[in-house]
Amino acid sequence: MDASDWLGLEPTHNPHRWCLPVTEGIATRGRFLFGGCGLGAAVAALEQTTGRPLVWATAQYLSFAMIGDVVDLDVTISVEGHATTQARLVAHVGEREILTVNGALGSKDHPAAGQYVDPPEVPAAADCPARPAREEDERSIMTRLDMRLAKGRQWDDLDGHPVTDGRSALWVRLPDEDGSPLAVSGGSLAILGDYVPFGISQSQGIWWPSNSLDNTIRIVSLADTEWILVDVRVEGIAGGFGHGTVYLWSDSGVLLATASQSALLRSQAL
């Protein structure tokens, strides 16, 4: 199973149009499409339409697609070069635009290589406690994610005291129907890039519901891994908005991707 199957992305008779039925398995507790799943579906559609792997993509979240909606994803190829394709995608329900995505796709053989950041020092996934879904998350994507808390506090341990470094981390595994992990791809990594809201609550020591405004993912390596370390670094919170970066690591310390994001904090903590 790949990310397209896991999300439920479907082709149409038009090779530049895809559709995504919004089900509980890709929705939030609020019964709307999880932002990471929206970007993940867009990435998968871009890759399959262009025939090239993702380099980067940026999404602006404009509206909500609710459970039962069918999202149409329309791909436009702006420029197609020898090594790179520049493309954009508009996802909409009827005439209502849900998200827009711009991205670049491609690859080439080149001798330059290097990794200049390091993963956080956290226990291996097998040595970390599970982070179970809350009761209100039982009919959402959270029941499909195998999560281990590597750095941070469990739901009941958020005591209102902020942390000083804005750092938190989760080991996450995306199992398919038979329990095997999904292959690492641009689509599967995009699903996990939407974790700055988690980091905001961890940094503040209180659960602040928030809405993602955007997400930009940059693919570094598609190294094989069973568990992905979601390393969240919140850089600042002010004026009702939080900003942060997510580093996605393999279980052997390979940097898979980075994602940056801003989120609007709601007015009432839970």
Could you walk me through the main structural features you see in this protein, from its secondary elements to its overall organization?
This protein has 270 residues and is mainly beta. It has two domains: 3-106, Porin, CATH 2.40.160; 131-265, Acyl-CoA thioesterase, double hotdog domain (Porin, Beta Barrel), CATH 2.40.160. 14% of the residues lie in helices and 37% in strands. The protein contains four helices and 13 strands. Strands 1, 2, 3, 4, 5, 6, 7, 8, 9, 10, 11, 12 and 13 form a 13-stranded antiparallel sheet that branches.
Q: Strand share of the residues?
A: 35-45%
CATH topology of the largest domain: Porin
Distance between the termini: 36 Å
Radius of gyration: 18 Å
SSE succession: HEEHEEEEEEHHEEEEE
CATH fourth-tier homologous superfamily of the largest domain:
Acyl-CoA thioesterase, double hotdog domain
Largest sheet: 13 strands, antiparallel
Topology:
Layout: H1 3-7, E1 10-11, E2 17-21, H2 35-50, E3 54-61, E4 70-80, E5 84-93, E6 96-106, E7 146-151, E8 167-173, H3 186-192, H4 196-204, E9 210-212, E10 214-219, E11 228-238, E12 241-250, E13 255-265
Antiparallel strand pairs: 1-2, 2-4, 3-6, 3-10, 4-5, 5-6, 7-8, 8-11, 9-13, 10-13, 11-12, 12-13
Helix pairs in contact: 2-3
Which features characterize this protein?
13-stranded antiparallel sheet; globular; Porin; 270 residues
In brief:
The protein has 270 residues and is mainly β.
